[in-house]
Amino acid sequence: MLGFVDWLTTRTNNGVVRWEVKPNLISTKLLGPLLAEFVIVPVAASVAWTEFTIRDDEGKEVFRACPQDVAGKESGHAQVAERLFEAVMERVRRA
Fold first, then answer.
1. Is the CA virtual torsion 11, 14, 85, 80 positive or negative?
2. Domain span at residue 48?
3. Total structural domains in the chain?
4. Most buried pick, 52, 59, 76, 78, via CB within 10 A?
5. What is the per-residue pLDDT across 31-62, written as a single tens digit (0 to 9) for each?
6. CB of 28 within 8 A of CB of 18?
7. Smallest Cα–Cα separation from 14: which of 80, 87, 89, 70?
């Protein structure tokens, strides 16, 4: 699934994936039944993510990352999610 998140980052950077921004959530529908979401919180003049998930069409979580996992067991998940979040925020700023 890490490779999928990398693919999603590339597609976001290329402007292919459109993200919907809500007050506490940034999300996109993917490849039919998949839903990717960042839970966000305001920080100064920007936002930070507190959780990133990908869920299937039944709502089952297939990928999860939290920024505090960067140094822990799930560090790979947090790192790819952070790169994706940066790409999403760059797209949001351009819109």
1. positive
2. 2-94
3. 1
4. 52
5. 778 999 999 999 888 889 999 999 999 999 99
6. yes
7. 87
